[in-house]
Every structure is written in structure tokens, then in C-alpha cells.
Fold this sequence. Notes:
- This protein has 338 residues and is α/β, with parallel strands linked by helices.
- It is 38% helix and 15% strand.
- The chain has 12 helices and 10 strands.
- Strand 1 (8-12) and strand 2 (15-18) form a beta hairpin.
- The chain is globular and about 50 Å long.
- The protein binds NADP nicotinamide-adenine-dinucleotide phosphate.
- Residues 23-26, 55, 157-158, 178, 206-212, 215, 233, 267, 269, 286-288, 290, 294, 296, 299-300 line the site of NADP nicotinamide-adenine-dinucleotide phosphate.
Amino acid sequence: MTLAENARFAFTPDMTICRVLNGMWQVSGGHGRIDSAAAVEAMFAYHEAGLSTWDLADHYGPAEDLIGAFRRQFAARYGEGRLGEIQAFTKWVPPPGAMTRRVVEDAIDVSRRRMGADRLDLLQFHWWDYSDRRYLDALKHLADLRDEGKIRQLALTNFDTDRLVVIVDHGIRIVSNQVQYSLVDQRPAARMAAFCASHGITLLTYGTLLGGLLSEAWLGRAEPNRGSLATISQQKYKNMIDAWGGWTLFQQLLAALKNIADKHGLNIAAVGLRAILDRPAVAGVIVGARLGLAEHIAANSRVFDLTLAPDDLAPLEPVIAQSRDLMRVIGDCGDEYR
Ligand SMILES: NC(=O)c1ccc[n+]([C@@H]2O[C@H](COP(=O)([O-])OP(=O)(O)OC[C@H]3O[C@@H](n4cnc5c(N)ncnc54)[C@H](OP(=O)(O)O)[C@@H]3O)[C@@H](O)[C@H]2O)c1
């Protein structure tokens, strides 16, 4: 399978990525039992399909170790020279505390060791409490580690627009912010995307498929209760749907999406992904992968064959117009974690 040309994106001058990234939160528990050997074998299938970019974190269970194992086996199979085909974007989510050079560097060294990489392709930094301004200390040390070559590019996850302004004003160069962005949760469109677009920062998005709820599988289904949802991802996004407008309105959204999908001979997920890929500042959408348990490689690759005309999405507008304003209900991007 060869992906259409628009699948690749010049994320930075030194790195292109696949615009559908494979998300590895799904290996960290709560999404079915993951077998390491089967998971690594599955990673080859993603890579060979062109889905070469991975999103993970230090706290996603074995995710960094799986990248390490995948890189080792990949080098053995194809030669070390081809390792540059893989992009592995991790995160550092430190507990509160002093952000000394030692603390920061030790954390980065652990990720480098686990992932078997001298240099991390992308380090996405998360911070829990904005009243503790030591996030700026951490970012300064991370920027130094980037300049010294342990990190290729520095990025953020779940930072709001106000803090993005502070970070940029401190002269800290970051390339992206990872945020929740879907047809249901459109908060990034309120302030974040415009600021990013005007400062050369891109967005990597998660929750774009609402844990799989944004699909034919849930069209026409009665409202699930929490216990009947198979993954913690689905539970997380069911809460988001409730905050947004509830299950009945969500069914109207799915029905409208199904009509659009049928018109293009694709599925609901493809339309949901393409709609966000087409938004300003978005570099890529992350799709969670339950490695070795389930895969949607062929279906999600077809996103790159889909072109949405501006009026294709118009039927969604009357539905979305009935939803609540999540900027008011929750706050800006990432506020759900604070
Ligand atoms: N920065 C953060 O705070 C944060 C938070 C959450 C997630 N993330 C990142 O984003 C990634 C995405 O995770 P998410 O929880 O947001 O989940 P998601 O990507 O919205 O949903 C993933 C699920 O969607 C289903 N799916 C995928 N393609 C499909 C298709 N074509 N048709 C129907 N269903 C499809 C799969 O379900 P089945 O496996 O059941 O088939 C898959 O497990 C994570 O792995 C992580 O890397 C980051």
C-alpha cells in the first residue's frame, strides 16, 4: 500500500511525518491485554503501510520500551541506515517538583535509553499546575538539551493559549502543541489555532475519533453506560460527548457524518479525521492503536484519498450549533487536566 502524497508533512525543516500518527496510550492498560511480541510485529505493519510516526509518553506503560524493541528489530531487518524512517514522539509528564538540570536530563536519559535512541525526535512537555511557574525552568533545560543534541525538537502537550504566549515570550522555541481536537471538541479553533498559525507552531491532535465512538459501530446505538464501554478511551470521550450536548445530539452528528461518508464512499472515521486535518495549524491527527488486538490501517490510510469541499461539511453545522460551548464549560485546551 502506498499512501497518497499528501500523507507526508514537513513537520520541521529536518523531519517529515505521516499526518496520521499512531497513538500508543492504548498499550498502557485499560484497552485490552497487550502482548509485547505481537505489538512489535504489528508496528511493522503500520510502518510498511507508510504510517511511520508514533505518539507515546514516558507514562504510557511499556510504550517507550516497545519503540526500543521495534527500533532494534527494524535495524536488524532493514539495517541501521533506515532507522531514520521512524519518527517516535514521546512526552515527559513530570510530577510537581524542582526542575533542575539534573532532574530534567535524568528523565530525558531514561526515555533515550528505553527507546534506544541517542536523540529523541520530539519531546512533548506536560505540566499540571500553571501557578507553579517552574514549567519555565523545565522548558529552559529542555531547550538546552535540544541544543546539545539529546532532543531533536521541543514541543508541548495540553498547554493553553495563555501559557503558550508566556512560553513564546520567554524566547523558548517549540514546534507543536498536542491537544484534544475533534468535531465534538473544537476548542482549539477558538484561540489556540490562530496563535499557533501566526507563530510557526503546529497542532498534533488526539481524541479526533473519540476513542472509536465516532464511527459506524456507534451509529443508531442506544446510549451506553460507563460499564459497557470497552476501553478507558471510550469512557473519557463519552464524558466529553455528555459535556458537549449528549448522546441524542451525538447520534445526529453521526447520522450527518454517515451521509457525507457515503457520498465519498468512505467511512465516518475518515471524514472525522479529514475534517480536523484540514483545520488551520493542524500538522497531524493521532489515532490510538491497540497493537496486536485491532487495526484500521487500510481504512485510515484512505483519509489521504479524501478531499472535502468547503460545503461538504455544511450539514454538520446545524447539529454542532446545538452543542454547548466547551470553552465555557471546560476552558481552553488542556483545562480538563487541571
Ligand atoms: N496528550 C494527551 O493528553 C493525550 C490524551 C489522550 C490521547 N493521547 C494520544 O492520542 C492517541 C489517541 O488516543 P485516543 O484515546 O484519543 O483515541 P482515538 O484515537 O480517538 O480512538 C482510538 C480508537 O478508535 C478506533 N478506530 C481507529 N480507527 C478507526 C476506524 N477507521 N473506524 C472505526 N474505529 C476506529 C480504534 O478502536 P478499536 O481498537 O476498538 O478498533 C482505536 O482504538 C493516544 O494513543 C495518545 O497517543 C494524548
